[in-house]
Amino acid sequence: MSAIVFGHMNPDTDSTISALAAADLYTKRGLAVSAAAQGAPTPDTQFVLDTFGLTAPAIIDDVAGKDVYLVDFSDLAQGPKGLAEANVLGIVDHHKLGDVTTNSPLEAWIWPVGCTGTVLKAMYDFYGIEIPKAIAGGLMCAILSDTVLFKSPTCTDADKAAVKALAAIAGVDYEKVGMDMLKVKSSIDGIPAKDLVFRDYKDFDMNGKKVGIGQVELIDIAMADGIKGDLRAELAKVKAERGCHSVFLLLTDIMKEGSEMLINSDDIAVVEKAFGKKPEGDAVWLDGVLSRKKQVVPPFQTAFK
Ligand code: MG
Ligand code: MG
Ligand code: MG
Fold first, then answer.
1. Residue 116 C-alpha to ligand 2 middle, in angstroms?
2. Is the dihedral of CA 37, 40, 45, 46 positive or negative?
3. Measured in angstroms, how far is the CA atom of residue 71 from the centroid of ligand 1?
């Protein structure tokens, strides 16, 4: 039986490209693995696919009973239906270890770096397998996207070195391609508020409470001025529909290097507890905050204790 490799729900560039790269690498190692995704590519991921002539992975839904590899996540809550009944053969990731379990030993590559793409670059090197030009370009963009052009505190020297090596293989100027990609990611014109909230949304379990955190990265936060009312209405809907204690949306300004957080919570005091700053109404500006994983989830985990 051939296996499938896929990333988390609401797939980002890393989840999508890392699945393609992992399928290429595993196949060249003699394993039967094909790439999949839990949804269609976002516009910025589509830009990366088009720039390097890559094809989007097939969309999957139920994986019960299947042989699977995971990239960019290891939480059941971020997986497709049936993941708990699937046979997980391996994980390539850069997040905290989640709650998937396996029946047999698995191949796990989980490193504290800025992007799964960086781990995959190291895996190609480890196995002595040449990285195809298109995949190199894609992985390069995945790393630039996850590390917000190296500005995120999640970025490590390994990520920077990987981008430079991948850019050389792809034969592109990484600063230019990275900026073009972020411009596409930033364009929110005509995109429904719901799509923006779920563009990069994750539910977390915080001391038994369900907490949703979405993030939209913008080159200029003023781009979102006209739609904040719609975003607030959407947050209220998301909170009710998903039964969340709190729903937060980070509007991240990658040039000013900070985030405005829109808040809809049963207990708004958790925000001040987490960040030491009192919200004005239902929003707060968090200076220097670019990373949900490193700068938002941990303080909330503590505040919810
Ligand atoms: Mg991701
Ligand atoms: Mg990632
Ligand atoms: Mg991300």
1. 5
2. positive
3. 9
